[in-house]
Amino acid sequence: MIFNSIIDFISRHQKYILSAHETPDGDAIGSEYAMLKALQKLGKEVKIFNADPTPRKFKFIDSENEIIVLENENQIPEDIEDYVLLILDTNDKNNIGQISEMILPRVKDYFIIDHHESEEDLLVQNIIQKSASSTAEILCLLFKSMNIEIDIKIAQALFMAIVYDTGSFIYPKTTAVTFEIARDLVSIGVNPNHIHSKVYESNSISSLLLQSKVLSTLELKYKNRVAIQTMMKDIIIESSALYEEADQIINFPLRSEQIRVSIFFKENMDGLLRCSLRSKGVVNVAEIAQSFGGGGHKTAAGFKCRMSIGDTKKAVLNKLKPYFI
C-alpha cells in the first residue's frame, strides 16, 4: 500500500508542525490546512509555521488564522523535541525558509508529502507522487485510505488547492482521478464558483497596475517562442501592489500560440531574485531549474537566482537553445 509509510508515521507521533515551501501558493496553503484539520480529527496536536505570509486571496481558507509566519524563537514550543515536522508541497528541505534552521534540526523526525520532481533517494521514506496533480490530491486519497472524514472545511481547502495547482483542471497532470476527487469534494458541499471567485477574482486594483508594468518589460527570444518578463521591487513599490499578486503573470505570454516557454524574473521586497519557468510541454523546465539548484514540474518550475539577472538570463537562454535551434 502506497500510504503505509505515512500512516505508520502518523500512528507513532502525537505532536506535529506542518510547513510548506517559501512564498506558499494555493496548493501549499490548502494542503496545510486540510492536513491540520485531519490530524486534529485523530486527536493530534498540530501547529502550522510558514516562512512567508499567506497570500491574501487564500486567507479565506484559514478563517481561524491557524497558519503562522515563524518570525522568532518565542513562537517555537518549549517541548519542540517532542514534535515531528511534516513538509508539504516541496521535497527540498532548503525550500522552507527559516523553518529549515529553526525547526528541522530540533524535531525528532520529519516526513515529506509532495508531487514535484525529486531525487530518487527521497522516494524511500517519503510520499512523493510525481504523477499527482497536486499535493492536495495525494492528501485526499490518504484521508480516504485512513477513513478520516472529509468535512466541508477540509473539502474546501483541498478543492481550492487542486483548482490552483491544476490551473482550473487544465494542466498536464490533471487526470480522471483529479476530476473524481473534485466531484467528491463538490458532493460534500464545496461551491466551485465561490472558490474560483476567491482565487481568481479577488485581486486589487494595484495588481492590475503591477501586471501592466511587468508586461511592459516583455522580451521575445528564439523567433518569438520564448517570452521573458521582469519584475524588480521598484515596480512593486510604484504599483502599491503585493509581491504575491504577481503569481499569475508568468502565464500571460503562454496565451499566445507562438510562445512555448515563459520566463519570469521577480525580485521580492528583501531583494531576493527568483526565476520562474513555464512551458507548454515540449521543454522540460524542471531539468533547467534543477541545474540552477531549483525544482518543480516538467511544465512549471523555478529557482533562486545566485547570479546577476543579466548573467542568469543568458544562462537560462543557453539551456533553452537546444530546443529552438
Structure notes:
- The protein is of the alpha/beta class.
- 36% of the residues lie in helices and 18% in strands.
- Strand 11 and strand 12 form a beta hairpin.
- The longest helix is centred in the N-terminal third of the chain and has 16 residues, at 26-41.
Highlighted features:
12 strands; 325 residues; 6-stranded mixed beta sheet; alpha/beta
For the record, give the distance between the C-alpha atoms at the N and C termini, rounded to a whole number.
46 Å
SSE pattern, N- to C-terminal: HEHEEEHEEHHHHHEEHEEHEEH
Q: Would you count the extended β strands for me?
A: 12
Q: For the largest beta sheet, what order do the strands appear in spatially? A: 3-2-1-4-5-6
Would you tell me the structural class of the helices and strands?
alpha/beta
Detail the poorly predicted runs.
none
Major beta sheet summary: 6 strands, parallel
Mean pLDDT: 95
| Radius of gyration from the alpha-carbon trace, in angstroms | 19 Å
Which overall shape is indicated by the principal axes computed on the Cα atoms?
Answer: globular
Count of discrete alpha- or pi-helical segments spanning 4 or more residues: 11
Q: Percent of residues in helical segments? A: 25-40%
Content of β-strand: 15-25%
Condensed summary:
This protein has 325 residues and is α/β, with parallel strands linked by helices. The chain contains eleven helices and twelve strands.
Compile the SSE list and pairings.
Blueprint: H1 4-12, E1 15-20, H2 26-41, E2 45-50, E3 67-69, E4 83-88, H3 99-102, E5 109-114, E6 127-128, H4 135-145, H5 152-165, H6 176-188, H7 192-200, H8 205-215, E7 219-221, E8 226-231, H9 233-239, E9 261-267, E10 273-279, H10 285-291, E11 295-296, E12 300-304, H11 309-324
Parallel strand pairs: 1-2, 1-4, 2-3, 4-5, 5-6, 8-9
Antiparallel strand pairs: 7-8, 9-10, 10-12, 11-12
